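Step 1: inspect the first sequence and its tokens.
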Amino acid sequence: MCTSCGCDDGETRVDGAPVSELSHSHSPALEPHSHAPELTQKRTVQIEQSLLLKNDLYAQKNRDQFAQQNILALNILSSPGSGKTTLLTTSLNALKNRVSLAVIVGDQATANDALRIRKTGVKAVQVNTGKGCHLDALMVNHALQNLTFAEQGLLFIENVGNLVCPAIFDLGEADKVVILSVTEGEDKPLKYPDMFHAANLLLLNKVDLLPYLDFDLQLCIKNAQKINPNIKIITCSATTGEGMQAWYQWLEQRRVHLLKERLIPLNNKIATINKILPQALFSEGDKE
């Protein structure tokens, strides 16, 4: 976790502007990510719990905002070089005339990925984490203040390239989607089990390169299912378009499912009202 991964307090920026309050900032009682030998294991656990508690509060705040606007928010995760941004730009170009879209991009430095995404015509907010190795819920909350888009849309949160810490931090998303390139090795799910256990969907990207690689696709799928038997797996290539329709169909299914879930409380209220409507305020015997 962030008490031992090297993640440190750095200046977080949203679209180039510094953010005054950081979720990685601590009170004097919580020294930032101490690596000192004198820090006991008990103290480390207390710091970790405090960090995650604060993060979870902001995650719920984000989740409430997404619910109010009927937005499907997805946390897109991968290691660097998996083709995450290319897959996103391909997806945005395919979907931008069908549904409202927006992207929050997380990187330690530069706005390179946000600039690539903006070329599709889709609004993108760049979050630079400084020395941070992942996005957290407060960073996303700040980024949301720079976003306005129609209800019932899709929000892609492109996390910092990292298969460790981003798995731990809830951003308020509906689903975690992990992208694994076939150039990375079929044992990645076993090496980074927390990430693949947390993910709802695995996109096996760059399958067009399989003829040129010593990569066992079925073994990779087996390893992912060993860690997470319920994970959905789609093989695809953002470059050639192979498998991308399956990805788009999954997005639509999740969006429809989310909207139907939000109809349940409303339908329950309607059912209750319908039961009350036929009831007379007074029985026949009460009338004068």
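Step 2: inspect the second sequence and its tokens, then contrast the two.
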Amino acid sequence: MSHVRAGRDITTHNYFPYPAAGAADASASGVDSGAAEGGSLSTEQFVRHNVAPPFADFVDRRREQARIHRGLRKRGAIISIYGMAGIGKSALANKIAWQLTGESIRSRRGDAHATTRAAPAFDAVIWCDQSARHMTLDEILNTISFVLEDTRAPLLPVARKVEHVARNLNRERCLLVVDNFDDRYNSDLRHFLARIGSRSKVMITSRTVYSHDAWHVRIGSLNNRARLSMISRRSIDWR
């Protein structure tokens, strides 16, 4: 998945967190950025993240979105989104991740029902994109640390950094998204993911089923109605 949003390429935005709208107001007023486990996102919460906004022409995959949200509430830490290349895995993961930053809620402040929409609460949402090239484990750890505003971790050797970053992820409620994960070549990353407890969650997209314990979400082809909807939206955009 590689596209530009607000002047940022999603393949290179890994190290640049987007400040959430209203963060300064929330901080000044003493609003807690965390939330009780299992709670829903408040319009005043500040979720640290580096997630790019999703494309406007995203076609709802309601069944898959619902299954992902169920997985986020399960005790297991990993949600595996898999399917053929180009089927829409990254777009779906991006849509879910954006929802969980709370930005979509903040953009609908006039909607009285916005805060009641079911969504688990996270303190941070971290996006790591492997579609252009495979990030090393060290780069992924640095991305996590940057979004979590941890200046110490990048200075540590990798072995100590793994322990340090895993502790940080287990201390807060974080969602780590690894886009275009390849189970065959990411053994170091897979071992790191195994250190993440159920307080935080990991959402990975890949062409194959994750080979270890995970909540699996298969992405198939769009039905005819969804295809027509997507074609209609894009034809309007091209006019």
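Step 3: confirm your contrast with the notes below.
Residues 4-238 form a domain with the Rossmann fold fold (CATH 3.40.50.300). The first strand starts at residue 4 and ends at 5.
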